Task: inverse folding
């Protein structure tokens, strides 16, 4: 039985297809890459076909892959190859740190993450502070106060303050404030949330935050 070529085979149609994008034709010169680059590029394309990633995350993924699978290559050759592959992925449009930062900030704001939590998360991807600030600004452009809006979403998800079901005593109030603080919200924001009487009051405040007229 003739064995079918796999996507790991640089001579296969699957490998060629992985290297193509809607805007970039297949570059036959990519088949002339050293073996370590071919293996890393194939891993990069496979990973990026499933996940959005920053340059830093892709470097980490390729580094772990190299430790598991490419131990027979020289470490210096591996590091050089990783840099080349990451640069090629940026050039081909597979990786875009700006788009990644914008997407992450919007998604995390919608889930109730504080600016501090988002900033720390993006810094782990080696996203520079100027781009982080721009991403946060874009994520908050539909609200008067994006941080307060995120705190209200966090409270709703965790059933804190006005979203809590049941009696609220001092001890419980302090635990709820602590939860908001651990999530990265400032004390002033946390108190604004906790001072709301009930869910109806919280939902009215959300409506006011969205009213940009």
Result:
């Amino acid at each position: 039985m003739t064995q079918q070529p796999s996507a790991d085979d640089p001579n296969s149609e699957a490998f060629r297809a992985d290297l193509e994008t809607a805007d970039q034709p297949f570059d036959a010169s990519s088949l002339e890459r050293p073996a370590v680059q071919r293996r890393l590029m194939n891993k990069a394309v496979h990973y990026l076909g499933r996940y959005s990633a920053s340059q830093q995350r892709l470097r980490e993924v390729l580094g772990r892959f190299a430790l598991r699978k490419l131990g027979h290559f020289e470490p210096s050759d591996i590091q050089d190859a990783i840099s080349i592959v990451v640069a090629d992925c940026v050039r081909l449009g597979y990786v875009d740190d700006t788009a990644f930062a914008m997407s992450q900030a919007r998604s995390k704001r919608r889930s109730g993450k504080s600016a501090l939590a988002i900033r720390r998360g993006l810094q782990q991807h080696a996203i520079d502070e100027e781009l982080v600030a721009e991403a946060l600004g874009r994520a908050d452009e539909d609200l008067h106060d994006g941080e307060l809006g995120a705190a209200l979403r966090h409270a709703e998800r965790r059933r804190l303050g006005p979203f809590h079901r049941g009696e609220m005593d001092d001890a419980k109030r302090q635990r709820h404030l602590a939860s908001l603080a651990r999530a990265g919200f400032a004390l002033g924001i946390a108190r604004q949330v906790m001072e709301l009487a009930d869910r109806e009051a919280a939902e009215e405040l959300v409506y006011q935050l969205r009213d940009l007229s």
About this structure: Residues 96-141 form a domain with the Arc Repressor Mutant, subunit A fold (CATH 1.10.10). Residues 114 and 147 are 6 Å apart (CA to CA).
